[in-house]
Write the structure tokens for this entry.
Amino acid sequence: MKERDARLRAGFETTFLSQGEVERRFGIRGRTALLGYDNFTVDPRRLAAGFMNWAITRGADVRAPVTVSHVNPGRDKVVVETEAGPTISCQHLVYATGYELPKGVPTMGNTIVSSWAIATRSQPRALWPEEVLIWEASDPYLYLRTTADHRILCGGEDEEFEDEERRNAKLPEKKKMLERKLKSLFPRVDPTADFAWSGSFGSSPSGTPTIGRVPRMPNCYAAMGYGGNGITFSMMAAQVLRGLITGTGDADTDLVSFSRKF
């Protein structure tokens, strides 16, 4: 109830559901829940491509594939050296490299987390009512959603390490664990994975991103969405960086800057 009240104070419409309400409405036993509204799912690749195409129509010059070998910050401009030879000059440079930190950018105590997920076969008659997005607030957490072709995506089981070979080696074990948890939550579904995969993402001590001017690198900025809320943090980054570059400012700058205190 405290979390519900906090969400309401922040302006998020939220309803508390008792165990009985959760079972009657969604078929999940033994759980209370917070129900939020106006969430959505997207295809991340199509979304990114759409934003890129939109930027090109507004005059963006895209150089790809390019591997940056060195960045030379300056008072008036930033010169970027590439492995292929040509240099790129710009007034402002923004690092948006995901969880792969470039040289010279402080880590801010961020860590890399390994995660696993599965996708079941298509089973439209077995899906839960309303096909809501589900996030189980446990440790390790569990999340579920459905797809346009009626599969169930189920993921979580995070562990704090970044070794790719070790992460991939744990896939069979994690796949079975996710199948068991899915079956426990929804006994009528077929939890057998048609697909299973693993990946990494960045996490921060406070669960918040780092966005702002990079210390000791004039005219260089970073948008590091650590915390797992990429779309939300991307919008914040666009607004904060626009305010820094144009000088108009943004109210959230101090919350996510490199100089903030956790």
Notes: The helical segments are 2-9, 19-26, 44-57, 164-169, 171-185, 230-246, 253-256. The longest strand covers residues 193-203. The radius of gyration is 21 Å.
